[in-house]
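Minutes, project huddle
Topic: does the predicted pose make sense with NDP bound?
PN asked that the exact inputs be recorded in the minutes so nobody has to dig through chat later. Recorded below.
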Amino acid sequence: MSDSQEHVRCLIIGSGPAGYTAAIYAARADLKPVLYQGLQPGGQLTITTEVENYPGYPKGTMGPDMMEDFKAQAEKFGADIRFGYATSVDFSGPVHKVIIDETKVITADSVILATGASAKWLGLESEQRLNGFGVSACAVCDGYFFRGQEVAIVGAGDTAAEEATYLAKLCKKVYMIVRRDEMRASKAMQHRVQNTANIEVLWNHETLEVMGGKTVEAVRVKNVRTGEERIIPVTGFFVAIGHQPNSDIFKGWIKMDETGYIQTVAGSSKTNIEGVFAAGDVADKIYRQAVTAAGTGCMAALDAERYLAARGIH
Ligand code: NDP
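Predicted holo structure (C-alpha cells), as shared on screen:
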C-alpha cells in the first residue's frame, strides 16, 4: 500500500458534535477511528458565542471551547483526529473509499458521515462583519442574549416563522423581514406569527445593510414595491433563510431528500449503503441542535460497531 493509501476500520468525516461524539464512542469501542475535520474544524458551534442549552453546562460555555473539549475527549480515548477535507467518495464496493484533499485515498470498513450543514447567509458585507456580534443564524442558540430588546429576523419559511415566535417570547419586538407578499411557511406557522402581537411583518422588504460599529445597532431595509428605505433600530439580526446540508460529495451514492439531507433508516443512523452511517445536521433538517447531533453521533458509532462485529471485522 502506498503512502497515500491507508485502510481504517472506522472513518468519520466531520468534526461537529456528531463527528466528535461518534469518535468518542468508536474509540472507546476500540474501533481505532480516524476523523477528518473538514473545512471548518469544530463545525457550526465554532461560529457561535455562548452555548447555554447544552445539558451539563449550568454556567454555559463558549461554542469553540466546547468543541475543543469534545475533541480532547475523543483524543483521550485514542481517536486519530486529522486536518483534511473529504473531496470525493466511492461507495460501490464492500470496502468504502474516501478521497481526502483530492489526493489521499482512505479505504474503510465503516464510514460515519457527519459533515453537518451550513446556514445560508444574505451575502452582505455588514452581515459577515457583525456575525457573532448581534448577527446570528440561530435564534434558539442566541435569542436569549437579546431578551427585552428589539430584533429583526429575515426569512419566511417554517424556520423563520418558528424562530420569530420563539424570539417574540423573549424580546420586546420582532421585525420579520419577508421579501415577497406571502410566506413559504406552513399555514399553521403563519397563523402563529400573525397572532403574535409583538411581531411586525415587513412584507416585500429586502435587507440592504446591517448597521453598527462593534455590535448591531440597526438594519436598513427597502420596500421592493415602493423603493422606500427605512432604518429600524434593533440590537439583534437573525438570518433564517435556510440551511444547506454539506452532502454534495455523497450525491449519487447516498439516498437524500430533494434538498440534499441524507435519509437514514428510521430509528437508526443507517443509510442506503451498508456500513455507511449518517449523524448530525447532514441528516437532520428539523432539530439541528448540538445535543441532537451528539446523540445521533453516538448512534452512528454504536451502529458501526455492531455492523463490524456482525461481519467479524476486528
Ligand atoms: P425554506 O427554504 O423553507 O425557506 C427559506 C425562506 O427564506 C423562504 O421564505 C425564502 O423566501 C427566504 N429566503 C431565501 N433566500 C432569501 C434571501 N436572500 N433574502 C430574503 N429571504 C430569503 O427554509 P427553512 O429553513 O425555513 O425550512 C427548511 C425545511 O425544513 C422546510 O421543508 C421546512 O418546512 C422544514 N422545517 C420544518 C419545521 C417544522 O415542521 N416544525 C421547522 C423548521 C423547518 P421565498 O419564500 O421568497 O423563497
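Observations noted during the meeting:
- The chain has two domains: 5-118+244-310, 121-239.
- The helical segments are 17-28, 63-76, 125-129, 139-142, 158-170, 187-194, 290-310.
No decisions taken; revisit at the next huddle.
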